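Researcher: Next sequence.
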Amino acid sequence: MEASRDISRLIEIMARLRTPGSGCPWDLQQSFQTIAPYTIEEAYEVADAIARGDLDRGLPDELGDLLLQVVFHARMAEEQHRFAFGDVVLAITAKLLRRHPHVFGDAGKLEPDEVKSLWHEIKDQEKKARGDAGERRTLDGVPVALPALARALKLQEKAARVGFDWANARDVLAKIAEEAEEIVPVLDQPEAAAEEIGDLLFAVVNLARHAKVDAEAALRAANVKFERRFRSIEDALSAQDRAPADASLDEMEALWNKAKQDERKP
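Model: Next structure:
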C-alpha cells in the first residue's frame, strides 16, 4: 500500500506509540524535557543536509524527523489536555497571516529589510496584547538554550533596534583588533583569557552582522574548508605511506599551502 502523505496518519502513529499498555515503552517514557534535546539535534541535521546539498534524499528525510518532533510534543500536550497538533497549525497559520500584512493585508509592497522590521514591530505588538510586555527589558526573550553564536547575534540585533550599536563594520573591525590585544597579557591565565576570548568572539559575530554575513554559515563553511584541506594533507602523506603524525609541521604546512593553491586553479 502506498505510504500516506496525509499528516493525520503520522498523528495516528504517534498516538499509537504513546498508548499505555500497547505502545512503545521508550516513547511512553519520554517527556517534554527528554525530547527537547532531540528536537534541537534534528533541526541541526536539517541544516546539515542543506549544507551538504543533499536536497533530494537527505533533506526530506531530515525534515520528516523534525516534523516527528513537533507531532511528539503535540501528542504529549494533548495527553495533558493542554493543546493538540491542530492548535499548533492554527497558531502558526494565524501568525503568518498577521505578520504578513504586505501579502494578506493592505501594508503595500515592502523591501526585505522593511519586512523584517515590520515583523519585529508586529511581534512586539503581540507581546503587549498578551500582557507580557510589562517590565520586560530590551534583551528579554532570547532563549538561553540557543547555541552561543546564535544567541550573540540575537542579543546584538535586539540592542541595535534601540540604537545601541556600532555605526559600521569598520568600527567593529577596530574593536576586534582591540579585543585581540587584550588577550595578549592574559594568555597564561585561563580564566582571564576565557573572558577576553569570549569578548573577541562576540565582536566577530558583530562584524559578521554588520557585513551582512551569516556568521553560522560562514563558520560552517570554514569548518568544511579546513576538513577538505587537512584531508588533502593526509592523502598526500598516505601516497608516501606516511601519516600526519609522521610528518613535521613544516611539511604539513607546505602541503596545506599546496591544497590551497590547487583550489584556486581554474
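Model: The longest helix spans residues 215-238. Residues 169 and 195 are 23 Å apart (CA to CA).
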